[in-house]
Amino acid sequence: MERASGWLRYGFVAPALALLIAFNFFPLAYNVVLGFSDAELVGREWSAVGAKNYAHLFAEPEFAQAVRRTALFVCLAVSIELALGFAVALALHRRFRGRDALLTALLVPMMLSPAVMGLCWNLILDGNYGILNQVLASVGLPEPQWTTDRDFKFASILLIDVWMWTPFMLLIALAALNAIPGTLYEAAEVDRAGRWTVFRRITLPLCAPLLGLAALLRTTDALKQFDLVMSVTGANDARTQTVSTLLYQVVFREHHVGLGSAFACLVLVLVTAVATVFTRYLERLRRRPA
Amino acid sequence: MRLVRLLVLGTYALFALLPLLWMGLSSLKSRADTISPSPRVVPVLAEGTAPDSLAFPATLSAYGELAHAHAGAEQSFWEHLGHSAIIGLVSTLASVVLGTLAAYGFSRFRIAGAKDWLFFVLSTRFMPPLAVVVPILLLYRRFDLQGTHVGLILLYTVFNLSLAVWLMKGFVDEIPRAYEEAALVDGYSRLHAFARIIVPEARTGMAVTAVFCLISAWNEYGFAMTLNGNGAVTVPAYFAGLQGNIQGMPWPQIAAGALLFVAPIACFSVLVRGHLLRGVTFGTIKQ
Fold it and tell me: B224 to chain A nearest CA, in Å?
């Protein structure tokens, strides 16, 4: 580390940090102010209304409902993607011809635009002209209305999310598997350990730290779920309402900026809590000898 | 065990790749064939096919249609793709430049509170766009930035800085300090050494970082639809905006446009496949 160069060193980091501070603290502070106001999306006049918006948030069940549904979505999406990604990684771990090409192809979905791909999934899931139901019909199975039936639409969004993000878990799980020294498996073989014992005592514990990182990264991302819901059911659907789509509904459809900002403040507190857990975990992970 | 492995891989590969194949097939259909009640799976080069046949006449007309504005829209797909390209490329360039400078600063100097700053930088990534967009919208209204290229470029640049700083810090950390020290001893100034030694050495890292910044700017939807609903509409916001269209969804054009829209990203992800892991984990896992 150098002591010389004086203020120049701050010159390197200052532009980036200044932009980040401006674009993060300004919205946070302004959200807090707006949250105590009756501001509307149209018209510039607004006045302070005290904690009225917050009272409304706790009185109306739809807000708590959206938080619960987002939490449910995150839990289900992250655990299904983790389990599936890990399973595929185990199947893909051993080398074979064409493995790298297959892996590259399998990773493509996570790079694509969720809003656009969510829209295209309607061509598969639509109850009438979707290919999924046409295939189900041809083998005599029932044909649910995947995107409009109240019992199925949440699961449909979950399915698209699993399609998009399992590759992410697969990628990290493979890295974790590759990092396990082969000598451990050889030692286990000498000890005549069974397959299940090897998996439970060697593979799983050694993969755990990276899988934890993957799960946390996905969690912070899934909390923002907005694009897929918008492309499958839209913002005003009680069965699929997430925190982000409810914010959209309140602010941009109903024009209640004050109420939306108050809700945004509560959401940001929750997100900050998750982010703190994440950064702590990352710090601990980095301190371990690699 | 071998059988189980094959089964898992085969099933998953179908699940992952068939939707992409279906998108490709749909882009070759007429609108009637995309919403036909019986499955249309096999493209054939014929004028017409029987109503209940699995085959459908393949046509490239959807790709041609992309040049025309769809009913209710003002601009054609290509113009929206242009907006996406301008916003994506300029913001990527800005993020990589600012990110590399900051990464160099954090990598080489003793910065007060460096660790806290870095975690602050990372945590900005976790903000849900919809929770911060209202103040930004009000600000942009005042400065006439709503519906402009500049507005989204600025926002995406900041949004991607977290990724750029963290990824580039990993890459700069790997460049031996001795290189620039030699240059400094030779009388280079600090800035000169940065430009002549670090930038060329960090080329690969900058390219990888650029690809990941471009991908997230290219795909972004929340800010794009709320801030640029009118004017400089990017492709994701344009396509999503077609929902509820009075003439029904132009499915073949959507499939064709989506394919053209995601193709560059798919190519880029193949190009950086050796660095994918780093990219998606903010450089915390290196391989």
Answer: 11
